[in-house]
Structure formats: C-alpha cells, structure tokens
C-alpha cells in the first residue's frame, strides 16, 4: 500500500507507475540483490579472499603458457604477446562481470527442470532480473580484478582503456545473453542443459586463443554461432586498430542477442510448470 | 582387500549407468583438441619443422594423450566429495566404517576412471587417426609401457588431489588450492612437453607432478625409449610412495582436529 508522501513510487492519476521510476526501482532492487549476495559470501572472509586471490593467480598462470609459446614464434595467429594479454583481460573481465551480477543464469536449467522458478514468479518485480541477480560467484570478482590488472600493465592510452571497459560490459552482456538463451531451451527440451553447458564451455575455451589460428568455417562459427568473435575477437581488433563500424557491430550484436534471449525466456516461461517444491529462499 | 573390491565394483556398476552422460563430455575434449590442432598447425607452418625435437604429429598426439588423461581422470570424488565430507561433517559417519577413509575415496575414484578413461581413450585414438594421422614408431612395447605409466599417473593425480582436499580439516574450502594444482597440470603439463620450457626451468619442472602425471605417460606414447621408461617408472613409484605417505600423514593429523557438532 502506498503511503502519502512515499517518494519511492510515483503513481499518475490513472494509477499507473511511471516507467522511469519503475526502471530505477528495478535497478535498485537488482543492485541490492547483488550487494546481499556478496555480503552472504563474505560471511567467511578467509574463504572469500582466498577464492578471489587464487582466481587471479589461476588466470595469471596462463601468462607462463603464452610466454613460452611466444618464445617459439613472434606472432601467433597475428597476435603479439600484448594482444593475447588483452584477449585474456577482456575474456576474464567479461566472464567476471557476468558471474558477479548474473551468476544464476548459468544454472537456469536446474531451476527450470526442478521447478524452482516458483519462488521468483510470486515476487512483485521483474521475474527474469530477479532470477538473474539472485546469485554471485565469488571467484568471478577475481576474474574481473584480473581483467583490470591486465589493462594497468598493458600501457594503453586513455581512449583504449575506455574502449576496453566498454567491451568488458558488452562481453558480459553477450555471455549472459548466450547463457540465458541456452538455459531457456530447457523449457522445451529435456537434458538441454548438457548441450547448453558444452556451448558455453566452447565460448569460454575459444575466447582465450587468437582467432588467427582458425580458418574458414570455424571462423564463421566463432563469430555467428558461438559468439566468441563478438565477445572478444572483434573488440580486441577495435581496441588495437580503432574502427567505428566494428564498435557498432559489437553493440548491435550485444543488443540483438539480449533481445532474442529475453524473448525466448518469456516464451519458454509460458510453458513452465511448477514442481510444487516447498523451499525457503534465505 | 575384499571390502575395497566390493566398493570398486559397486562404483563401477553405478558409473556404467551414466556412460551416456560421460560421452556428452566428448564435445569439450574435442574442442580442446581442435584448438590445439589449429594452434600447433600454425606454429608448424613450415613443413619439416621440429620444435623441442618433436614433429607436428608428435606434438599434437602429446596434447591428445595428456588431455585424455586429464578428462579420463576427472573426478568429483577426490576433490569435491572428500572436501564436502570434511566440511559438512559426513566424515564422522565414514571414518567409523571398517575401511580407511582415504582408501575408500581412492577406490571410488578408481571405479570412476575405470569407465571414463577407456571411453576417452577410444575417442582420442579415433580423433588422432582421422585428424592427425598414425603415430610413427608406436608399437607393442610403447603400448604396454604407456598403459602402465598412464594408470600410475592417474593414481598419483588422485592421491595428490585427495591430499589437497584433506586440507579442508584446517581451511574451510580447499577448492582454490585445487584450481592451482589443476592449472599447474593443465597449463604447464598438457599443452606442450617439458622440452619446450627454457632449459633452466626443465630440471625444476621434472620435480613437479607434471613429470609423473602428464609428461611421462604421454612421452612414452609419442617417443618411446626403454631407458626413459625405467626412469619414468621409478619416478612414478617414488612419487606414489611419497604421495601416499603424505596422504596418510595429513589425514592422521586432520582427524585429530575434527569437531563434530551433533545434529
């Protein structure tokens, strides 16, 4: 019930909420949700910090692999060592950002199959955003920090740093949208989570190797079927050699994929049937 | 020993039911191998090139064998289950059973890879022959030697992963340490052989589990020499003895620290 003078919701004369206020409230709820996820993870501070630090070390260990490979050849797939680091930074940053804010998307099939979406359907806010922001992966903070460390050491100009940060956001959007699309298939097909996981694994695995080593149909596959190209390859090319068209393509693709995945999710939600599972979300 | 044989048999039967699920993991294996084929194809652009004494075919087969060991030995038992048993208190029930907890976990692990490894082996051979070609010089002695070495390597891997899980007696979550161990093996051990590392680092790498878990078995497959076989075998037996000693020691110390809250 709205009290007089309550400024959190603006209601017009027809009783409809102003969409801008609604959007603002939605974002605030999402941010609070992520904040509480992180606070929950921080209950055991040692485990929390160990997870973050070791993930940074984990990612950094790949530097050794690439340093050794670059001893054998000066450029690999048209990439120098610095560009491979950029690729790594962008991959880790995008993956980290996505798993900090939207980690639950990656376990969406489990919610669908086990009928665990009920708890979100009765909430007075957007179902999808509530689901997506209901969990945070601690180690993803380490991934994001690693991405930021990479740009600190990569000697980029201010403009390129901005581009890097921008592409980290579009990359996170692409990986989240792709996970949502794959996860939503579980509304229609049984055991689709295995296929979805394989596709996501492929997206991440390819994202840490230069696209120049792949040829022909595989390259097409990496740009248009598994969106690794739009997530990291094209952004790295735009950062190293600015191209406005490339920038717009990445933006357009991120928006299009997001729109498609959200549509597929809501289409699928119509088919959702409850598992009558009684459980408490704490 | 009979009780362990019964545990092994039951895990084997249980895992046979999920053979189809294991086969779905082939896609990930194939992706890795596909990436390596492309990567090494690029590195060996000029025909006849040898890197670290390896031909292109040997290098790709090396990666395929190490990845086969890696995927075949993947187990939630030595890493996840042991750690959660300790954290969740389930160990209080398991340690009172008429078996040694660590050997129980290792037996379960053996039951798991007994199904996974042969499946990945068939896949590796099929992918290798169709996409890379036959391995020159691979005969019966190499087959026998590498089979023994692979089994020992997988067991050593299980023992070390269990040792890391047993750290949960002191720290709540040992997962980050598992990541580091996995990355040590995966990044430094599976992509390329020790000969590719800078000369100064090679003796150091030979002292790590990489030598006994990945490098040794794969080296015997791609480039078999009798004298090297003995060297690798001795190193593996030594590593296994030290690893088991460490495992029993850590477990013995850990259970003394155990607090179980009723519930």
Question: Could you explain the architecture of this structure?
Answer:
- The complex is a heterodimer of chains A (282) and B (263).
- Residues 1-9 of chain A have low confidence and may be disordered.
- Chain A has one domain (20-269).
- In chain A, α8 runs parallel beside α12 (244-269).
- Chain A is 69% helix and 0% strand.
- With 282 residues, chain A is mostly helical.
- Chain A is globular.
- The longest helix of chain A has 28 residues, at 45-72.
- Chain B has one domain (2-256).
- Chain B has helices at residues 2-16, 19-24, 26-43, 56-72, 77-88, 91-94, 101-132, 140-165, 175-190, 202-206, 209-222, 226-256.
- Classes of the chains: A mainly alpha (282), B mainly alpha (263).
- The interface between A and B is medium-sized, with 34 and 31 residues.
**Strand content of the residues of chain B, in percent?**
under 5%
Rg from alpha-carbon coordinates of chain B: 19 Å
Q: How many strands appear in the DSSP assignment of chain A?
A: 0
What does the main sheet of chain A amount to? none
How many whole angstroms does the radius of gyration of chain A measure? 21 Å
By DSSP (H or I, 4+ residues per run), the number of helices of chain B equals 12
> Kindly, what is the distance between the CA atoms of the first and last residues of chain B, rounded to a whole number of angstroms?
33 Å
Give the domain tally of chain A: 1
Shape of chain B: globular
Instruction: Name the helicity range of chain A.
Output: 55-70%
Most extensive contact? A-B, 34 and 31 residues
Task: Give the number of helices of chain A.
Answer: 12
Q: Span from first to last CA of chain A? A: 24 Å
Report the uncertain regions of chain B: none
């Amino acid at each position: 019930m709205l009290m007089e003078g309550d400024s959190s919701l603006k209601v017009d004369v027809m009783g409809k909420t102003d969409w801008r206020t609604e959007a603002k409230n939605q974002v605030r709820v999402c941010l609070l949700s992520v904040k509480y996820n992180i606070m929950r993870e921080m209950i055991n501070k040692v485990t929390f910090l160990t997870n973050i630090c070791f993930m940074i070390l984990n990612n950094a260990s790949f530097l050794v692999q690439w340093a050794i490979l670059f001893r054998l050849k000066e450029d690999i797939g048209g990439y120098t060592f610095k560009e491979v680091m950029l690729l790594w930074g962008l991959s880790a940053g995008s993956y980290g950002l996505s798993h900090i804010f939207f980690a639950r998307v990656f376990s969406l099939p489990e919610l669908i199959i086990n009928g665990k979406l009920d708890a979100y359907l009765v909430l007075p806010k957007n179902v999808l955003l509530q689901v997506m922001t209901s969990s945070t992966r601690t180690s993803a903070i380490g991934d994001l920090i690693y991405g930021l460390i990479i740009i600190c050491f990569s000697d980029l100009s201010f403009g390129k740093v901005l581009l890097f940060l921008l592409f980290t956001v579009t990359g996170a959007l692409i990986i989240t949208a792709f996970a949502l699309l794959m996860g939503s298939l579980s509304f229609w097909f049984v055991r689709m989570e295995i296929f979805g996981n394989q596709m996501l694994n492929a997206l991440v695995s390819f994202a840490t190797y230069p696209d120049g080593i792949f040829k022909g149909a595989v390259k097409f596959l990496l740009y248009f079927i598994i969106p690794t190209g739009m997530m990291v390859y094209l952004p790295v090319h735009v950062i190293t050699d600015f191209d406005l068209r490339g920038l717009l393509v990445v933006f357009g693709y991120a928006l299009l994929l997001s729109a498609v995945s959200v549509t597929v999710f809501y289409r699928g939600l119509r088919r959702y049937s409850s598992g009558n599972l009684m459980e408490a979300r704490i | 020993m009979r009780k362990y044989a019964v545990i092994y048999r039951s895990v084997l039967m249980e895992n046979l039911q999920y053979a189809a699920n294991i086969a779905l993991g082939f896609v990930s294996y194939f992706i890795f191998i596909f990436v390596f084929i492309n990567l090494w194809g690029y590195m060996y652009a000029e025909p006849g090139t040898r890197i670290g004494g390896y031909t292109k075919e040997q290098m790709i087969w090396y990666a395929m064998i190490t990845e086969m060991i890696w995927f075949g030995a993947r187990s939630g038992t030595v890493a996840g289950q042991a750690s959660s048993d300790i954290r969740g208190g389930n160990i209080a029930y398991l340690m009172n059973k008429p078996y040694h907890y660590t050997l129980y976990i290792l037996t379960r692990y053996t039951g798991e890879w007994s199904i996974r490894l042969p499946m990945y082996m068939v896949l590796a051979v099929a992918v290798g022959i169709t996409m890379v070609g036959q391995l020159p010089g691979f005969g019966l002695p190499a087959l026998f030697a590498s089979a023994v070495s692979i089994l020992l390597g997988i067991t050593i891997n299980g023992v070390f992963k269990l040792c890391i899980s047993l750290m949960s007696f002191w720290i709540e979550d040992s997962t980050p340490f598992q990541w580091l161990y996995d990355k040590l093996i995966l990044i430094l051990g599976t992509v390329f052989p020790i000969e590719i590392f800078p000369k100064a680092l090679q003796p150091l790498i030979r002292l790590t589990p990489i030598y006994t878990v990945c490098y040794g078995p794969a080296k015997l497959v791609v480039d078999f020499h009798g004298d090297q076989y003995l060297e690798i075998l001795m190193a593996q037996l030594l590593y296994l003895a030290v690893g088991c000693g460490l495992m029993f020691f850590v477990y013995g110390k850990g259970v003394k620290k155990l607090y179980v809250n009723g519930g």
